[in-house]
Structure formats: C-alpha cells, structure tokens
Description:
By secondary structure, chain A is mostly helical. Chain A has a single domain (14-235), classed as MetI-like fold, CATH 1.10.3720. Chain A has helices at residues 2-12, 21-28, 41-72, 74-87, 96-103, 107-132, 135-143, 148-183, 192-201, 205-233. Chain B has a domain at 106-164. Helix content of chain B is 33%, strand content 26%. A six-stranded mixed beta sheet of chain B has the order 6-7-8-3-9-10, sandwiched between helices. Chain B has a four-stranded antiparallel beta sheet with strand order 2-1-4-5. The N and C termini of chain B lie far apart (49 Å).
Amino acid sequence: MIVVWEALAQYVHNPFVLPTLGSILSVLLMPTADLLGSGSLLENARVSLFRVALGFLIAAFLAVPLGVAMGQWGGLKELSEGLISALRPVPPLAWVPLAMAWLKIGLASVVFIIALGAFFPILLSTMQGVRSVKRSWQEAVWMMGANDADLIAKVILPGSAPEIWTGMRVGFGIAWMCVVAAEMLPGTSSGLGYLIMYAYGWGQIQVVVAGMVAIGLLGILIDRFFMAVERRWFSWRASER
Amino acid sequence: MVFLEGIRAMTLQLLGITKSFEQADGKSLVAKVVLKDINLTIDDREVVGILGPSGCGKTTLLRIIAGLDQPTEGEVLLDGKKVSRPGARTKMGMIFQEHALLPWRSVIDNVSLGLEIQKVSGSEREEKAMRYLELVGLQGSSHSRPYELSGGMRQRAAVARALALEPSFLLMDEPFSALDPQTRKQIQTDIIRIQEKTAKAIVLVTHSVEEAILLADRLVILSANPGMVRRILNIEMERPRDSMSRPFLEMRKEVLGLLGGG
C-alpha cells in the first residue's frame, strides 16, 4: 500500500491532492515542530488525549455504578432499559448542536460528546457482566455472612470486571472517534481533529495525512493497552465459558 | 492440630417445613407443594444423609436449612433461634454441587474469603486458610487458580473454604456428584476423616445410596410429590464402613426399597 501510495504521489505530482511519503514523514518525524502556527503534532495529540481521557473517565464513573445497579436490581432494569433504547440509537455526534446550546462552545461540549460516546458501551457491558455473575458465587458469600457492600466488592465487581473492561475498550474507541470529529467543529482551536481541518484549510495535505496517521496510531496503541490488560488479568473468564 | 476451638454443642431443628411454589397450570396459578411438613432435629456432630427420588425437594430443603430460601410454612431453628439470614452468621457452611469457587481468586484467597468478610486480620487469615488447606491436602496448590485444579481438588478447596469460618454445621448439596468414581471414593474417605477431626455436624444431600450409607449416622428418606419424610433410619455400623459387608448391603437393599416406591 505504501509503495502504491508513493508511486501514485509521484505520478499525480500534486501535493494538494496526494503528498509524497517524504513530506508526510518529515511532519511525523518532527512531532514537536510548530505546524502553521497551530501548535505541534505532539501538543495537539496531548490536547486530544486529555479531552478523551476526561470524557471517558466521566462516562466510566457514571456508567459502571449505574450498570451495576441496573444489572443487579430487577426493578430498576425495566425503567432504565426504556430510557436506553430511546437514547442509544442517536449517534453521539447528533448531540453536537444540543451540546453547544447547553454547554456553549468549548471544552465542556467536546467532553460531553466524548462522554456520551463512551457511556453506552460501558453501561451495556457492565449490565451484561453483572448478569453473568453466577448465582452460586453470590450465595457462597452470603453464607459467609456478607452484606450488600461485601457482595458488590467481592463478587459482583470482580466477577463482571472482564465485561466492564471490554465495554471500556469499545467505549474508548468510540470516544477517540468522537474527539476527532468534535474537534473539527467550529469553536475549537486545538487538538488533532482541529489540526487536520486547519491544515486542510491551508492546503497542507501532508500535515493532514500525518495527523491521520497519528490519530490511527494512538488509537491502536490504546486499544493494545486495553487488550494487554485483558489478557493479563481476565484470563480466568475464558475458563468459565 | 486443633480444630475444635470455639465450637460448642448446637442443635438444628426443622419444624413443620412446608414449601410451595406458584405454578402456571393452563390459565390459572396453582400452588405446587414441594415439601410438606418436614420435622427433623439434627444434633451436634451428627452426620445426616438426605435421600429421595429426584424431584422430592431435597435440595430445596437444604437451601431452606441454609437460609438461602424461606419456607412457606414452618421454621428452622438453630439453638432455638430462627435462622433468618443465609448461614445464620456463619454457623453453617455450605458446599455447593458446583464448587462455586471464585475463579479470579487463588485457592488460598478463596479459602480466606469468609475470614476477609468477617474482618479477620491478614496474618490470622492466612494462617487459618493454610491450616484448612492442609487438612484437605491442598497445601501444595494454595496459589493455583481454581480452573487449574481437577474437579476433586476444587471440591476439596470448597470444603476448606466452608471449614475456614469454623461453622458448627456443614451443608453439602450433592457435593461429589460431578466427580469420577475413584475421586469420589477418595474424597468420601477424607470427609470421614475431616468430620472426625473437626467434629462438625454434616447435612448431606445426595442421590447416591452408597454415599449416604458410607457417611451418615442417620438417613432421612423423602418421598416425592410432595416431599415428605418417609422414613428415618439409624446406621449403627462402625466406620470406616465396608460397602461389601453384609450389613451394608442389607441396608442398601432396604433403602433402595424405600426409594423405589411401594
């Protein structure tokens, strides 16, 4: 693919359409250099990562307890499932106008969109994880005199942790897509999404492509991290299926 | 080793235990009676085997004794006090049909789980857990995960876990039914040894007549639909019992006759 790209770039010979590998690499290899006065690649990546981390953490802090409650207590289930089935089909980016109306343009609305994107996968897999916790595990700790707090801490959370983690991995992937898209919206002035839109405006396509590569690489790296933790800590899950 | 500390004589009484479930019958709900008027007293250090045809509610009965299910009528008394919480504050320990070990914890962490819940200090926890792992012969596998163990070893770990809280009663729900015959025989022998050493009372639900006669001081034979006490038999044979001896075979024949109908 790389060879085809370079051959085509040489053939087209138009950096506004297809920049050469050399020009893309020179952007990637100097991640600290300022690009068009909009900050360096590294700096913009840092901004995007910060936003996505913030939105993701907010989503996780809300979705995990809610998912545990909804998975564990039947009464809550009926009520919340209606709400979820109404809200979930709306893509997070469709919330953008409303987010801007409520939270104004800026960090808060970007973080809101990210949190929304990560929220549902985490919530749903937490619920599913909690429901997969074996009845006999719960009864075993009840026989040991456990109260509700013991039950949650010793059985429900560790027992559903593999599913929660998978939900976080999926949620983070969506959050990462959301941050890039949200940064392309008016009113943002930093981040990788902003950088590639801005570079496009200046006709700097090699910066656009370099930005895309950086977005992709970071996404893969974070996904690998999630998978590594999964293999390290949740290998017991495979034995239960 | 001392396993008798803190244990004192206790009596478990079942008074008129009746259990019925609502069941759909065509369009109306009908109460299906699973257990009817079960009366039984289980003494300290006694091994009681509960036998019955499938569907006689013997597992339900054990769960009611454990406090995991509530009877529709009647009550379970431990030392005269009603059992209102599962395990009656750890005076009863349960061994489930499927070991029910937590797969993310090592064997020793499973055994010390109850002590952890009871807020026993770390060093005491480990010392006690190790002591009971030794008793069931699992000291060499203390840091394995349950899924790395054989079925028999898992059930031993479950026994150690139930013992770690030093209950007066051990409740066993067909604990060895998933094991191969050889492992089963071995673990039955161990249960006799452990029972003698720790002086627990054991309530054993089983569908194996041999197992019940091998282990129990007393057999409670239930009839099905609804589950009622058909007969209670005392077993006077000395332990260890020989399953080929004449008294054993005669008793087996008698029990099979009682289970078979008529």
